[in-house]
Amino acid sequence: MSSAKKVALVTGITGQDGSYLAELLLEKGYEVHGVKRRASSFNTKRIDHLYQDLHEGHINFRLHYGDLTDSMNIIRIIQEVQPDEIYNLGAMSHVKVSFDSPEYVANVDGIGTLRILEAVRILGLEKKTRIYQASTSELYGGLPENKNEKGFYDENSPFYPRSPYGVAKIYGFWITKNYREAYNMFACNGVLFNHESPRRGETFVTRKITMATAAIALGKQDCLYLGNLNAQRDWGHAKDYVEAMWRILQQDKPEDYVLAMGVTTYVRDFVRLSFAEVGIELTFEGTEENEIAKVAKCNNPAYQLEIGKVVVRVDPKYYRPTEVDLLIGDPTKSKTKLGWEPKYDLQGLVQEMVAADIDLVKREKLLKESGYLVTNQFD
Fold it and tell me: What HAMAP family does the annotation carry (predicted)?
């Protein structure tokens, strides 16, 4: 093994971002170590294609059992791995669920970041190890008065988090900046706006929409229930965003960066785009919790839905106690300093997600019909 090979440690390796980042780092010749929480069932489907048997030679991808709530465990892993770069992507990242588990999200997303920084300091790795902290656009809270003169949120916009998730992440942001200044550590925040992919968790709104689009088109689901259709988000592709994460740690000077597309879209329009991918045109009627979407036209003979069928309804149980209505980021600094140029637009993202979920529903339908799958999520 070459002594020049960089070593990276990735928390949250089994998540959407972790899996794409691991692929990218392996392509660049890194030795990649991932932190995985212990579970009684396998939760590695996003990274199974990267797995290497430990009995093989030249292993570049390894997993370690760990948890961001366990300081001694984090210290042990970092001491063993001696990473050149740490990407802290591990988090409880579902905003709505954070209202139900506020203490847990504070422990993982907030104090978990401190545990990593302090472990690096205790082990004397301040000069060797560079740290990327996954921050979030939820820090801004969507307040219009906090946007810059161009109408975007950037690196200088004030924070006003509106959820336990956002509050926990704001601690992670500031403790990263504090350790950078106090101990001269190369520690950076990437303030990421919404980024999605076919690997996005199934309870997140974009994936929930594309999965329901596929299931409804194939007759496996009757209706999609959503919360605030008037929410606006700045959506990009996770593949693009993990490249920017890597670029942040390759700079000469540690700084914080906003990663965004600079385009905002209503949840309602994401639904339209998703159904359009299977040739179904929707018309929306009503307001707030009484809003519905009906099939206006079905242009694909493979998916025959009745005209006028209601396929989307609003369920107030999905509303957040405090809502963030609009998020849009200014990626100027990331594009100019990092040379970051996203390859995907929203249309391409939706197209890839819907195509993947159509394949998923078809596979599960075949498995069930063949007797290999007794129940599935679309029943």
Answer: GDP_Man_dehydratase
